[in-house]
User: Fold this.
Amino acid sequence: MFPPIPNPSTEPVAPTFGEADLWRRSASTIERPAERQTEVAKLIDVSKCIGCKACQAACLEWNELTEEIGSNVGVMTNPPDLTENSYTLMRFTEWENPESGNLEWLIRKDGCMHCEDPGCLKACPAPGAIVQYSNGIVDFVHENCIGCGYCVKGCPFNIPRLSNVRDRKAYKCTLCVDRVAVGQGPACAKACPTQAIVFGTKDEMKEWAAGRIEDLKARGFANAGLYDPPGVGGTHVMYVLQHADRPELYAGLPRDPRISPVVEAWKGVTKYAGLTAIGAFAAIGFLHHLVTGANRVSEHDEEAARRLTERGEK
Amino acid sequence: MSADRPRDVARGDAVHPGNPVIVDRYTVPARMNHWLTAICLVLLALSGLALFHPSLFFLTGLFGGGQMTRFLHPWIGVVMFVSFAGLFLRFWRLNFFDRGDSAWLGKPGEVLAGKEEKLPEVGKYNAGQKLYFWLMSITILVLFLSGIVTWQQYFGDRFTVDQKRAAVLVHALAAIVAICLWIVHVYAAIWVRGTINAMTRGKVTGGWAWRHHRRWLREVVTGKTLPPTTAPEK
Ligand code: HEM
Ligand code: SF4
Assistant:
């Protein structure tokens, strides 16, 4: 068993990180802190999940949200997609393993991956609406959010959701930044009865995952492995997968996620080329006027028009 | 097209003899239509640029903050699109290219130097204005369509993430094109003195028409369609 985080004391505790520990801030240039905090991570071991949805319930409860009562569409995944309230969602896949002939129930807890290189933050136009702390947690700051939905376009995992009933701002998993700051783990990890979700430093999590993968391999899952995709610089939410060679099996988990080249082009070269072009057009106009001077109508032109009209009138 | 008007003459174009000669170029509805489009376009450029680059985010202050900017921009876009459609319907017939236009475009040196005596006589619009008309029409259509796909509040569920990514890139690029075209358009109106009057009062002087749109002036005066020429009149 991974040693669980002890319950908090009843005394107030000072947060262990805050504004001074910002590693990235959307639409801003910041000076990074001299020292980076130890990176944290949540490890989701899909092979241990029993699909009880305690994490989903704990997430709603901790964030003081309620999900709308939906309708049963014949699958266990409920609600059918992430919402402005459900920051996390158990996605159920039934898969018949052709090698063993077994029916496997692959249950993946979907939610923000807390990317090391977050596409949401890159796309965000509002200064400080998305921040990344030096411990790796990516958080949305709602005072600064304008609700444009650019984070939706930036995210390689299709995670953020715009609120339609609350305030039209964007919401997603916070990795329980408010709990982690006072030495607790995320609410979902606390609620998980099988330790399919554990929380600690990123190194601890990798080490723990390695042991789990060894165990799975010994049980015949030759391709068991860790999902910590390098295309986004690694993530601060990682999965242990029985079939790490085929992440798509798990309700479409992307094989090699990275910030879309379209988003990179939009947020990169387009900005510089665009502002340069606008500046150049204005400058050319200015220079043209300096060189040619105003294009004025002469008395000669007025006279010609008078003659033409008089002739035409007759 | 009305049969009793020459090809390059629009409804309301008329000449008033005197000193100077005054020529009516735009009716009141046409001017209101143009002003509405112009104001919307400026507001769209400002609110769009505010989200385009962090260094311009302060422009959201003009619209009541970031959230208001995000909310207002697409709605102003819808108004502008409808208003521009009005301008398009008014002006499209006058913007067909003819032989004279290729000759005009073939002499960019003279055009830029303002040596209009060396250019073929121009109808209601010169080839540059016609180019602006068509390019702006295409750009605004592209902005409208890509803007709809980008509009998270109402269309967030209608399109895939890949479509939205493409749309926002296309929208940003088209916006740059629109702003650059607009700079040329406004600069030309300032450079060619007497043009702003057409926009504010709908009238220009006869000398202005003689210098810059002589074939149009001839058509207004004579009431007859004149063939486009490819060389300056002697
Ligand atoms: C024709 C109708 C238009 C519609 C429906 C529209 C819609 C949108 C939407 C939905 C956004 C995303 C931000 C938001 O939700 O407010 C946006 C961004 C933007 N729009 Fe428009 N727009 C239109 C026209 C224009 C025009 C005419 C311009 C420029 C002259 C323009 C320039 C921009 C720019 C620069 C951005 C920011 C792009 C970026 O962040 O890279 N838009 N527009
Ligand atoms: S998973 Fe999406 S929302 Fe979460 S940090 Fe990565 S890009 Fe941002």
About this structure: Chain B has one domain: 14-222.
